[in-house]
Design brief:
Largest interface: A-B, 59 and 59 residues
Structural class of chain A: alpha/beta
GO molecular function, one term (chains A, B): hydroxymethylglutaryl-CoA lyase activity
CATH architecture of chain A: Alpha-Beta Barrel
Strand content of chain A: 5-15%
Family (chains A, B): Belongs to the HMG-CoA lyase family.
Shape of chain A: globular
Strand order of the largest sheet of chain A: 2-1-11-10-9-6-5-4-3
Order of helices and strands of chain A: EHHEEHEHEHHEEEHEHEHEHHH
CATH topology of chain A: TIM Barrel
Keywords (chains A, B): Lyase, Metal-binding
CATH superfamily of chain A: Aldolase class I
Number of domains of chain A: 1
Oligomer: homodimer
InterPro entries (chains A, B): Aldolase_TIM, HMGL, PYR_CT
Organism (chains A, B): Streptomyces pseudovenezuelae
Helix content of chain A: 40-55%
Number of strands of chain A: 11
């Protein structure tokens, strides 16, 4: 399920030798799907992603089911996948109660999710930015005390649907706060997909200048305007080695209003493989997984690589 | 028809100040559409593209109608648009007969189309690479004698569906031959969309080393595997200032077998505008043009930017 001998591997100078893909399809992808996927299908999805070589697979979210009904089965799902060998399975936790649920099931990696803008903090968290950070601080402390690795998501790092362009200092402030409370890594989200490469580089430099080293920064691009892979390439040139992506581009239907699809893992892997950057992922297996998942969802994958490679098999 | 204040303009260092977009939608786009578009619609499309600020609009092809029935109306179309002010209107010419037809209608820019691989030369031109170059040589000479500007397309510069990865020296040889016979500029085609940024940079460097300056090189990427914009960004970093793109991503339906869509002009303009690189294009008008053209064709545009911005209007 690959093109014979392609992509040709031709490294570019000064890029990382290896990239860790933080696979978000099972969480960020499925939570944005209209249909709710059966728990056994989700578990099989995570297993197939692991079998394709992904080593960091965000499994689910312990947000209250009222807010994210698509992932209301976190308690049932997590035990079905937690024994997978060689795979990290981070889960989202919104507060102390969510952390309790996650830890009690054996989660060893959790993620909190902040916003760089007041508008999105209000819309998504029903709090101000500072109020949400105040909620996260004890969650992060306790997670760390329990030996868990903590990721801090920052939404709306580039543009915001209500506020337009987001000033760098807002993003830097939230990133610093998350690191200061003990987060191990950050994920810079371009939630509405508006970023371009110069903006990405400017934010990374601003973070570095404020003492945030590149090796704790992950990038999380959405392909709403087709910019995700170009932005990723710019981030790699800056030295970023953690890239979020969603198998098959799951999350936000590209045919619907306010399309906000994630960068497709397959499109990312095609580029990284072409650049000779190791990921450990078997592209053919990953495409097969996304084709299978698209069948479960009853709609084609929006990933261009998935479409191109699966059409060749028809 | 743009997101308020977005994309935010943040230049990256060492990129060109201005890029010339070589718009291929009316030719490369429409010749790959299943349905044949009425001549008056094509003329209106070219006019709207010009109105959106595009200054190089490939209008049609003087290939024999038997081979490209979609563009069989070149003689009717060209006179309807040739008076457009401030716009260059290159046309494809396959041989002396095609050149005669083009010149007799007042064309001042023509393009010949070679292949870097024997397999595609045979499939597309029914000749060997050298035989096709021998056909083009007198065409280019005569076009130049008549004062026309000549572009030389080179297909399959990175990968070939029959031959796999394409050796650099094959591409360099064909590029050199086209320049030596008098072509003013080249367009490096990734016809099956398999290239990645390192490969792009390697080819550009190889061409430079063989005396082909960057300022005669245009890049022509297809988005089959989602790589087109990342490859374009890498080419910009190398100093390339001519980029081919197709309004709305016309050409090769993304939902069909062997999808081979062109880079969408809107996705390109979003990135260039974000980077502060001048193009002269009004993104809102261009999106409106592609939405209109999609209505004529009866299917949605595959451009992510067109989809995102037009959905906002619903």
């Amino acid at each position: 399920m690959t093109v014979q001998g392609l992509p040709m591997t031709v490294p570019a100078s000064d890029l990382p030798a290896r990239v860790r893909i933080h696979e978000v399809g099972a969480r960020d992808g499925l939570q944005n799907e209209k249909s709710t996927v059966p728990t056994e299908v989700k578990a099989e999805f995570v297993r197939r992603l692991a079998d394709a070589g992904l080593t960091t697979i965000e499994a689910t979210s312990f947000v209250h089911p009222k807010w994210v009904p698509q992932l209301a089965d976190a308690e049932e799902l997590f035990p079905q996948v937690r024994e997978l060998k060689g795979v990290e399975l981070p889960v989202l936790v919104p507060n102390g109660r969510g952390l309790d649920r996650a830890l009690s099931l054996g989660a060893t990696r959790v993620a909190v999710f902040a916003s760089a803008t007041e508008s999105f903090a209000k819309a998504n968290l029903n709090r101000t930015v500072d109020e949400s950070l105040a909620v996260f601080a004890p969650v992060v402390t306790r997670a760390r005390d329990e030996g868990a690795h903590v990721r801090g998501y920052v939404s709306m790092c580039f543009g915001d649907p209500w506020e337009g362009a987001v000033p760098l200092h807002q993003v830097v402030r939230v990133c610093r706060a998350l690191l200061d409370m003990g987060c191990d890594e950050l994920s810079l989200g371009d939630t509405i997909g508006v970023a371009t490469p110069g903006h990405v580089l400017e934010l990374l430099s601003a973070l570095n200048e404020q003492g945030v080293p590149t090796n704790v920064i992950g990038v999380h691009f959405h392909d709403t305007y087709g910019q995700a892979l170009a932005n990723t390439y710019a981030a790699l040139e800056h030295g970023v080695t953690t890239v979020d992506a969603s198998a098959g581009g799951l999350g936000g239907c590209p045919y619907a209003k306010s399309a906000t699809g994630n960068l497709a893992t397959e499109d990312l892997v095609w580029m990284l493989q072409g650049l000779g950057i190791e990921t450990g992922v078997d592209l053919g297996r990953l495409v097969a997984t996304s084709v299978w998942m698209a069948e479960q969802l009853g709609r084609p994958s929006p990933s261009r690589t998935v479409r191109a490679l699966s059409h060749k098999d028809q």
